[in-house]
Predict the 3D structure of the following.
Amino acid sequence: MNRSIRKIAGKNEFYVLITIVVLCIVIGLINNAFLTLSSAFDIIRSGIEMGIFAVGAYIVIVSGGIDVSCTAVGTFAMFTTTKILYDSKYEGGILLALVMAVGFGLILGILNGTLIAYLKIPPLIATLATGGIINGFMLFFIGSREISNVPKGIYNAGKSMLAVVENEHGFKSALPSTLLILIGVLIVTFFIMRYTMLGRGIFAIGGDMISAQRAGFNIKRTQMFIYAYVGIISGLAGMVHTIMMINSNPLDLSGKEMMVIAAVVIGGARITGGHGSLTGTMLGVSLVTIMSNSLILIGIPSFWQRFVTGLIILIGTGITAYQAKRMKKQLNVEVAD
Amino acid sequence: MNKIVNFQKPKTKRKPLGNLVWLFIFMVGIFALMGLSNPESYFNIDNFTSMAFQFPEIGIIAIGVMLAMLTGGIDLSMVGTANLAGIIAAMFMVHAIPEDATVGTQAMYVFFAFLIVAAVGLVCGLINGLIISKVGTPPILATLGTMQVFMGIAIIITEGRAVLGFPEFFADIGNGALFGVIPYPLIFFVLITVIMYFVLHKTSFGIKLYMMGTNIHAAEFSGVNTGRMINTSYSISGLLAGIAGFILIARTNQAKADYGTSYTLQSILVAVLGGVNPSGGFGSIGGIVIAVLTLQFLSTGMNMLSLTNVNFLRDFVWGLALVIVMAADYLRNRNKDKKPKQA
């Protein structure tokens, strides 16, 4: 019993959870509009898109890589899909849009995978380059003007809600249906990471690539899978953005990839690879979303927002890093003894 | 015995030089291609002068990024530091210089402003270094955080507005040229490349830095204080960012918190294109110079194509150039790496 408590308390997720709880209490005390169902719905709503991106970033980070092209892939998938459907005056449902976004994401993911697995370009550089290529290609050849008159299927999907609450001022807050996409992605990813050899391989190559190779994992094929799968997830996340905004703006998402990576690391995934959990990732996303959504609620002026965001990143990632460093030191001492 | 020496010598010496030569050929190719597509306006002394005004800022920032990369890290906060340093210096100049100041006193104040950017840059860089070496935060996240913090401070103190109203003398630093041909920003850039070349190759700091980047544990065991090395190299990066900020506000004649945000990505691109290995230990000033010139030739040439939205096409081509150079590098070195295994 004692041991299991200690096991839970030693985990990074535990600290993130405590931070979230304390934060919620503090914000709630300052502004009691925060501790309501409608504000919870608002936070979930604004966290969905980042949550889906974060699942992709989590897999890449666990494998010891990094993907800074995820938002570019997402933007390409959502904008190109919307543009094609818009130009062809498509009137059908949302399913085709989702399938197309997934398809574009998969193709771009395979591009990343080829560069990283087969041409051995370091992930940071490869995805930096493909980010530029994808964004530049889309904005120059496909279009740079937002499409606000989206096809009917996307419009309907954007209006579809799981639940709606109304607060005393008559403002409506809703739980959008896109939450189901996040849940679906989470379940599939959890299953892959936990119960398949592929998932074990992702953890293994993140821990030590050479050992993983010696143990019989096919590094190239595993890396190819990772980036292709993450491409799919990013494509979905991009489409979810368009659905929820009911608007497709190719400049919306750029720059958000760093916040996604920061959220995943705050959730306890180590950027050096091999460590991390989906629970932690979701907690990290929650923390970042609550923080950035509540700055105005607790009366921080808008000029201070960027500064505070930076502090959150520094403190959040600092705690994780400091713990890892201390643990490594302890390990070294034990070995020395 | 002789055989071994003969075997090892070319292996250690030729490899980095080989990459530089390839990069140089790439640059000449781009230059010729861009020039021939529009020879009249490209091969023109005015065009060369205007190019020489544009690339020094990004070149200086790229050298800072290279320093961080030599330790195996990265510095995303360079532009944030540059703007913050620029803004503080700008506020000093706007508020401190009396209106009826002679050129002599103006020059003195501008000199103080230069000291301010240097000091702010150093402090920002040292903060990065301390977070990375003491707390142990991975550089990419530490500098991502400080980028937001530095930019945040800049927004707070300017309330999002631009700082204007510098002495005339100051604008000349960014827009004037020595004897009317050699732009002052270019002189800054050349001075910095020369100094940094000596720091990296002729001082014990530089040699230790390359050693540490190649193998941090080996360096630690041979008595290198890695924490202090990280602090020093990020401080120098910060200093360079401050100087870049000085040139930036002199050229644009105003200081703003969100200037040059695209420089972050571009400077990393320049460093990697110039042969700097982001996992540490490899890279040279010469590579940076060639890479920054390549990109300048490319973007100037593309601007002359008079297409709409040409800056998007530029991102596309830059990314493509990066992939081509990296892939060619891998394919060329693949056979070399295989040999020792078989032997």
User: Anything to note?
Assistant: Chain A touches chain B through 45 residues (CB under 8 Å).
